[in-house]
Amino acid sequence: MHEKEILANEKSLDPKDWESLRQLGHQMVDDMLHYLKTQRQRPVWQKPPERVKKKLLQPLPGAGETPENIYREFLENMLPYQMGNVHPRFWGWVIGTGTPLTMLAEMLAAGTNPNCGGGDHVANYVEAQVLDWLKEMLRYPKDASGLLVSGGSMANFLGLAVARNTQTGSMIREKGVVSAPGKLLVYCSTETHSSVDKSIELLGLGHEALRKIPVDDNFKIKISELEKSIAQDKAAGHQPLCIIGNAGTVNTGAIDDLEAIANLCMRENLWFHVDGAFGALANLLPEYQKALAGMSRADSLAFDLHKWMYIAYEAGCILVKDAERHKQAFEYVPDYLMRHDRGLPAGPYYFSNLGIELSRGFKSLKVWFSLKEHGTAKYQKLIRQNLAQAKYLAGLIEKHSELELLAPIPLNIVCYRFVSRKVDAAKLNELNKEILMELHEQGIAVPSFTLLHGKYAIRVAITNHRSRKEDFDLLVKETIRIGEEKSKIIFDKMI
Ligand SMILES: Cc1ncc(COP(=O)(O)O)c(C=O)c1O
Questions:
Q1: Residue 242 φ/ψ, nearest 5 degrees
Q2: What is the reported pLDDT for 313?
Q3: Neighbours of 128 (CB within 10 A)
Q4: 215 alpha carbon – ligand 1 mean position (Å)
Q5: For a pocket test of ligand 1, which of 150, 153, 301, 303 has the largest count of ligand atoms closer than 8 A to its C-beta?
Q6: How would residue 495 be classed by pLDDT, with cut points 50, 70 and 90?
Q7: Closest Cα partner for 316 from 363, 272, 361?
Q8: What single string gives the DSSP state of each residue in 379-407?
Q9: Fewest CB within 10 A of the end CB: N or C in the chain?
């Protein structure tokens, strides 16, 4: 086709028939609200069948088809086989539930479709407002700088990047880590999340630079061991850089002694980073503010909004106390991205200079909607409810001799297992793994798992605003039912 002809027939991706798309959009909203309202009536999880997986293997579409047909495929092949984390009995890993209004806010964000890297448009002012609210909620200094990111992993990575650059001085960006005077070291407990391991590797420090310090019986970092390790490394001529404290470890929800770590960082002139992926939000409750007091002393604080703030995926946040240090770690101003005094390239300091992403979606809108809808008062209630549910579940476990708690419960995570006199202790891991698989496959509940001192634990992490007391009654009843059935099979095989 000649250019002339093309220009005479210009197209766009907008619908030819806006009215039928409007009707389809209304149908989608109705269907999704119904889906969320009736969660409880469905299995928590259903394995995608082979038939469906095959149907998803399609050739690259050449010509297009109608939105109605595409949506029909979504309803048939996708909607029933989701992860299940919107269900009241989903408690796997630390995965939040989302809310109906954050779903709708996502539609508005995609509809307006701004790029929040920078510029004088309203989305950047919304992000600044949301960051100010988050600082206030977590009692973090007002003048700290921050950035909304995809989640806790990215937040940890960015916080640790600022730590590395600040502690090594201005040469690091130019010359890389080879310019450091000694081996750069980072300290954290053995219970720290794997996103920290990945970050350390990506920051060029090498995995050996991560000193994993043992924990006590409550899964908290042993401060005396931490001090010893730092002293030894310094004596060997290495350069300790940063200590990472946990405000809620991934396995059991342990909160490290953050005050002691803050004091040690001050004494040793080290950067203090806190991974508060979900635990940081407990700071909304006065009864947790003592345990989390050290958090406001952190140089950088990483946490998630899609976990214990129940915001639709994805949303996390990094806060950095010294805004200048934050800028110095990432700021880059090529000719085509210079901030202007007027026009669209004006506006607040560019968020793209506080992280590695230039193009950024309108994440703050769903957070803004949710905070305005519920206020901190409702968030306090819901977080307290999840904490009470964890205690309730622990109480049920303690009442049943067939079940055993495997860790203390400082926050919202309960680790337990089924124990049977009939089954050899060596077979308990296999048995509990089998119970977990059955809980999933029968669509009853989705806890996840971990190993605690070598014991396979069924792990219930409650960041779910839809769970009710009865859901935990059912979990306990079904764990025992499946446990008894499976141990009988194992026992029969043994004799
Ligand atoms: C303590 C902790 N830190 C970091 C992360 C990583 O967060 P995200 O999955 O949002 O990247 C998690 C995830 O569960 C976590 O529990």
A1: -160, 145
A2: 98
A3: 15
A4: 19
A5: 153
A6: low
A7: 363
A8: HHHHHHHHHHHHHHHHHHHHH-TTEEE-S
A9: C
Alpha carbon nearest to ligand 1 atom 13, residue: 94
If one residue of 85, 94, 197 were mutated to test the ligand 1 pocket, choosing by the most ligand atoms within 8 A of its CB, it would be: 94
How many residues are recorded in the chain?
Answer: 495
483 closest CA partner among 398, 422, 426: 422
Kind and range of the H or E element at 461?
strand 455-461
Average pLDDT score over the chain? 96
**Residue 62 neighbours by CB under 8 Å, 6+ apart:** none
Alpha helices in 203-256 (DSSP H): 223-235
Encode pLDDT of 459-472 as tens digits: 999 999 999 999 99
Mean pLDDT, residues 143-147: 98
Nearest atom in ligand 1 to 306's CA: 10
pLDDT tens, position by position, 198-213: 999 999 999 999 999 9
Confidence of residue 118 (pLDDT cuts 50, 70, 90): very high
Mutate to test the pocket of ligand 1, among 95, 149, 195 (most ligand atoms within 8 A of CB): 195
